[in-house]
Amino acid sequence: IKGGLSKEIIVTYTPTASEIVDEKIIIKSDKTDGDNELEINAIGNEPIPTDITSIVFEAEDNFETARNSGTKGDVKVSEDTSPLLGKSKAVQIYDKGDIVKINFNIPSNGKYQIKVRLRSGSLTGSTAYWPNGYNIKLNGASSGFIGDLESVSQKDDNFGGSYWGDMVLEWINLEKGVNFIEVEALTYWGVVDYIEVIGDNLPDQTIELFGDLSFGSLDVQSSLSKTLTITNSGTNILKIEKLSFSTPEFSGNWSGEIAGGSSQNISVVFSPPIEGTFEGTVEVISDAVNGNVSLGITGEGVVQKPLSQRLEAEKWFEVVGEFGSKAPIIESNGTSSKLSNDKAVQIYDKGDELRIPFNIEKSDKYFIRVRLRSGNTNSKTAYWPTGYEFKVDGVKHGFIGDESSISSKDNQFGISYWGTMESDMMEFSKGVHYLNVSAILSWGLVDFIEIIHESESSKRNGGSLGDASSITLGESNVELTVFPNPTADVVYFEMDIKEQNAVGEWIILNTNGKIVYRKELFSGQNSETVSLRNFGPGLYFTILNVNGNKISRKILVK
């Protein structure tokens, strides 16, 4: 090196481990006073991982209030929002001394970098809160979080004018399990957005829940299930330990593994034990790095009013029209122990018509039964099938008598018998409807009506639609066989009149009570073939009447 000149030499330091270096550089030369030296210092860190994965823990989803101080505002999710925040929301720590705690789950021991995204500045400057606006602790110990100037956002007009930035703790060893960050406000109007944990050994497991768990109204002591879908949107296997429900009215059980990119459907059951509104959560316990996740559940237990009902005619009847002079349509003057309330409503004149309103609580299928006078001194079924006419909401309907329901002889009302006539199953909408009963024969009486929901169809006195079993309305000396049933066209009838020298009337009626086929039959075996296709699909009734002894069948035409 020539006199008066200098030479620059590059010194390279390559750490091989985490270390502190405190050494010297010695320069040997022919200088008259010998060698010279220079101290050299350096710190060697382990290399930053090149395969880095990060996970974000939103403050508003994971925070706990560690301390609430002052009066400027509680430690809570901010009411103000900003598009510059992670999920538009953050947690406010507006008073000096406020502390918010944020838990985060580490899946394995390792080295991690931690970033806390928070309010870095105000109208006075983009970093007005750094370095003295916050005290940040990791797992209860003070830590060296430093503001990252490159992370500071543009000016935000929300929160009274703000800037947002990261305070970073460089690579530090953390143990597997739950860790936590505590952020203490050292000045006013602090805000915490989220923490980000960065590491090379964070597995890519992300758990998400999907499903509508709003059960609505459900009958008390019943159950309803809905589907909860657990999705692993990461690439590694997600292990589900169990489902945890906050209230016992909701239940479900599943544990197992979900492969990356896959889902698992779980049945969640709501079983209200009593009447009332129930709210809770289902929490899925897993090894996902972003912790466990929850979903809200709601349901209401209700006590349904009975769908079936019984209405006493004398309490509910309304007069539609009166004819003749035998008597007005009123509660009967006479009484009988064979009547449900010892009373009935009299429709003594031909053409007399009453109606009984009834309320349907739930739109569905129902059938109607009417208890009334079925017979007199002539026959216990003298009023069947043509003693009454029935209308439902103004439309004629055929009702068929069930002789198995007929009472014993009643010496009241000039000798009477009481029995039940039954309609076909009908569709009813919710609301008020009307059953009209008209007298075709004189001296009719109506005791009560029943509206019976299809769920209680076992209460029907007759066979169900298409049932080939008989509704026996007579003595054993009259037999009637119908086949095929149901049918699309032709029906074969086999009728046996065992009484000698007898004449019988055989009829087929539709549900409106109209006779579509009639024939006179005589003692012995009678075989008939009838095509019902031309009369249209629906329910029909066939009745064989021999000197007051009757037998009946229902026929379903498809």
Descriptive notes:
The protein has 558 residues and is mainly β. The protein folds into four domains: 53-199, Sandwich (Jelly Rolls), CATH 2.60.120; 207-302, Immunoglobulin-like; 305-462, Jelly Rolls, CATH 2.60.120.260; 463-558, Immunoglobulin-like. Strands 3, 5, 6, 8, 11, 12 and 14 form a seven-stranded antiparallel beta sheet that branches. Strands 24, 26, 28, 31, 32, 33 and 35 form a seven-stranded antiparallel beta sheet that branches. Strand 29 (388-392) and strand 30 form a beta hairpin. Residues 462-475 have low confidence and may be disordered.
Concise structural overview:
Helices cover 1% and strands 51% of the residues. It is mainly beta and 558 residues long.
Shape: elongated
| Strand portion | over 45%
Radius of gyration: 45 Å
Number of separate strands? 42
What is the count of structural domains? Answer: 4
Secondary structure layout plus pairing:
Layout: E1 19-27, E2 36-44, E3 53-58, H1 59-62, E4 63-67, E5 76-77, E6 91-93, E7 99-106, E8 110-121, E9 134-138, E10 141-142, E11 146-148, E12 163-174, E13 177-185, E14 190-199, E15 207-210, E16 214-219, E17 224-232, E18 238-245, E19 250-251, E20 256-258, E21 263-270, E22 276-286, E23 293-302, E24 309-312, H2 313-316, E25 318-321, E26 345-347, E27 353-360, E28 364-375, E29 388-392, E30 395-397, E31 400-402, E32 417-422, E33 426-428, E34 431-439, E35 444-453, E36 478-483, E37 490-497, E38 503-510, E39 515-522, E40 524-531, E41 538-546, E42 549-557
